[in-house]
Amino acid sequence: MIDKESQVSLNEGSITSQLDNLNDFEREPVPLSRTKGFKDFLALVAGEHIAGTEFVIGPLFVLHGVSATAVILGLLIGNILAVVSWTLFCAPLAVKTRLTLFYLLEKIAGRKLVSLFNAISGLQSTVFAAFMAIVAAGGIVLMTGLPNQSFSQMQPSHFSWILLIIVLMVLITFISISGIDWVTKFARVTTPWLPWIFLASGIAVLPQLGVHSLSDFWQAANTKIWTGVPAAGMKHFNIWHIIFFSWLANTALHIGLQDTFIYRYAKRSWYGIASFGGMFIGHFMAWIASGILCAAAIQVGIADPTPAQVAMIGAGIAGGICVIIAGWTTANPSLYRAGLAVQGIFPNVKRWKITLLLGIGATVLGFFPGVVSKLDSFLAVFALIAAPVGAVAFMDVYMFPKLGLQQNYSYNNKGKTNWAAGLSWVISITLSYLVFVWLELDFFFFMAIPGWIIAAISYVLLSKVMQQKNEQADILIRVR
User: Phi-psi category of 28—alpha, beta or left, where left has phi over 0 and alpha has psi -120 to 50?
Assistant: First the structure.
């Protein structure tokens, strides 16, 4: 007979063994037998981009004094460009290599060099998961009557907030460590109804703003919602700010190529078009709806509304649930991505163990709700960091064979560090920042595309010089 203590030990061993045996192909190509259909990607991408932060970003446009015309046209153009970026850059490369960006970069640049980027990427994704947990927790607080927690306040105001973040992050971490299949299943179950809550809540408050027919909408949009007048202390945004924000808020994922972790499972490269669901439902529609809700909140005297307050003004309890689920569905892939990134630094450690530790870190960060107020700055800085890395990988995969340059330099040279890749990254970030300061720009997102182009050109030129020197050195060695 097995005593109770032995049985517990066996059970624990069984759980850890199952987790150890999870294979998400972190360091090998995804086989065709494990690829997923288009519906999976539509749910997964929409689930990540129909997020609780939409109730943060939409109001930003209102508070920054964007005009109604600038919002509509800017979001239309910017989100089309984002879909094009996923469809023509990220998804085709992911299907071609079937690798995560993190392992592909290791083959290109070498373990030592890529570890720095992996650490930054892991930190970014972990922080974003914490953002989402904070947003979801705000919905629970408002619905349950727990002590209110202002997102403009950095320190938690009550111990119940800490307990709530712990519970949420336990659930998020569990799904994230369970692998891409669990992340996908959760998205497929929760995503389909979220867009309707955004749409219904926006429509519901229109009468409060004087809109009783379609003919009333445009006048209210210009006079009560997107008035063109920024709130006190806020910079004025124009159409260019909206275009670049909606296009490049997800720079790290599309032209930065981090979403290769999703699209390496795609059967076809055109599955990148699934990003349309995330951009035009999760961003275009949701940002407009949340902007309308923000205007309604300001009208009733809520000067600094939380995402849950914005959602519940229009949809009541359903709006609060929407914020909770939307935050959760975005946190899952964010923490999963963080685990993949950091595992690139420690390839001999199981992904689930790394993800568990990162989940603990995200939990601690979630104790401080004020970090959400830094969301736009956080996204802008990481866009500039991530864009050059995507350029390096893209040029190595697609252009190097045409230019007669060696691909996967580190992999083909016994792990040698590819300094051309590292220097390109540094040059791109440095020049982009100097241009940003020189032109006295007010929006960091403006520099992501120049940064990508600078990195692409630098990497080709520096690689040509480096590889020619290596060839000459090899010839001298053979002659001797």
Answer: beta
Per-residue model confidence (pLDDT) at position 112: 86
Q: 227: which strand partners?
A: 67
CA 176, 23, 180, 121 torsion-angle sign: positive
13: left (phi over 0), alpha (psi -120 to 50) or beta: alpha
- Residue 393 CA to residue 197 CA, distance in Å, equals 39
CB-CB neighbours of 232 under 10 Å: 6
d(CA 386, CA 164): 32
For 244-299, how does the pLDDT look when each residue is reduced to its tens digit (9 = 90+)?
A: 999 998 898 999 998 998 899 999 999 999 999 889 887 898 899 889 988 888 88
pLDDT tens-place string over residues 386-413 = 899 999 999 999 999 999 999 999 999 9
Q: Give buried/exposed letters for 456-480 (b at 16+ CB in 10 A, else e).
A: bebbbebbeebbeeeeeeeeeeeee
Residue recorded with tokens 């219904």: 200
DSSP H or E stretch at residue 38: helix 38-49
CA dist 260 → 227, 232, 278, 296 (Å): 39, 41, 16, 39
User: Are 137 and 165 spatial neighbours (Cβ–Cβ below 8 Å)?
Assistant: yes
Q: Which residue has the higher pLDDT, 367 or 46?
A: 367
Query: Residue 2: pLDDT above 50?
Result: no
Name the region of 212 (left: φ>0; alpha: ψ -120 to 50; beta: rest).
Answer: alpha
Measured between alpha carbons, how far is 246 from 287 in angstroms, rounded to an integer? 10
Q: Of 128, 75, 59, which is closest to residue 308 (Cα–Cα)?
A: 59
Q: Classify residue 227 by its DSSP letter.
A: B
What six digits make up the tokens of 325?
Answer: 């689920």
Residue 67's SS3 state is strand
- At residue 409's C-alpha, the angle toward residues 406 and 413, to 5°, is 110
Q: Is 36 helix (H, G, I), strand (E, B) or coil?
A: strand
Q: What are phi and psi of 155, to 5 degrees?
A: -80, 140
Query: Using CA of residue 155, residue 302, residue 76, residue 66, what is the dihedral sign?
Result: negative
Q: Over 95-109, what HEC string results?
A: HHHCCCHHHHHHHHH
Residue 220 vs residues 141, 209, 224, 356: alpha-carbon distances, Å:
32, 7, 5, 48
Cα 342 to Cα 301: distance, rounded to the nearest angstrom = 45
